[in-house]
Amino acid sequence: MGAAIFLGVVCALTMPRINATVSVVDADLRCVTDWVDASGRTGAGLFWTMRAPKAYAADPRQIVQVDDQLHAGSWLANRHDAVNAQVTYFITDADSYPFSFPDASPAGTMDVISCGRYAIHDFYPVVAPLKPAER
Q1: Domain-by-domain residue ranges, the chain?
Q2: Over the range 84-101, which residues count as b (16 or more CB within 10 Å of their CB) and which as e?
Q3: 25 or 89: which leads in pLDDT
Q4: Integer Cα distance of 60 and 55 in angstroms
Q5: CB-CB contact of 122 with 111 (8 Å)
Q6: Rounded to an integer, what distance in angstroms lies between the CA atom of residue 107 and that of residue 122?
Q7: Distance CA 75, CA 81 (A)
Q8: The predicted structure's pLDDT at residue 64
């Protein structure tokens, strides 16, 4: 009985701290989502890079999952975010590998926005040519 009371007190004391920690979006992620939301445009990233920004973006359709060869991917079941997407930026992190452009690379016109562990490679008005998902 004493152990149960002790455990209850410990949980009651630590719950506000745990709740505050879980409900705070980190500054790097906030930087990306604020930029994406303000841009009004669509971008892309590799699955492990774009999953958090996509989850927190005001309009998740603004971030499309692609592979390094620019094949569109399905993020979650029955999502069609890449259909007719006009991708004008990439979101990368330290684990991202370089994207491969089939034709002229927009690298010469690219602005890089640093968001801590993320980088946004903005090549607007150039549009990246997305390919259909590989099966």
Answers
A1: 26-122
A2: ebebbbbbbbeebeebee
A3: 89
A4: 6
A5: yes
A6: 9
A7: 8
A8: 92
Which element (helix H / strand E) includes 27?
A: helix 27-39
Q: Look up tokens 């069609």; give the residue.
A: 80
Only one residue has tokens 């079941």, namely: 77
What is the average pLDDT across 104-127?
A: 85
Of 92, 89, 87, residue with least CA distance to 119: 92
32/42 Cα distance (integer angstroms): 13
- Using CA atoms, how far residue 76 sits from 57, 73, 110, in Å, is 15, 9, 30
Q: Can you tell me the distance from the alpha carbon of 66 to that of 4, in angstroms, rounded to the nearest whole number?
A: 50
The structure tokens listed for 31 are: 């930087």
Q: Which two tokens stand for residue 15?
A: 């719950």
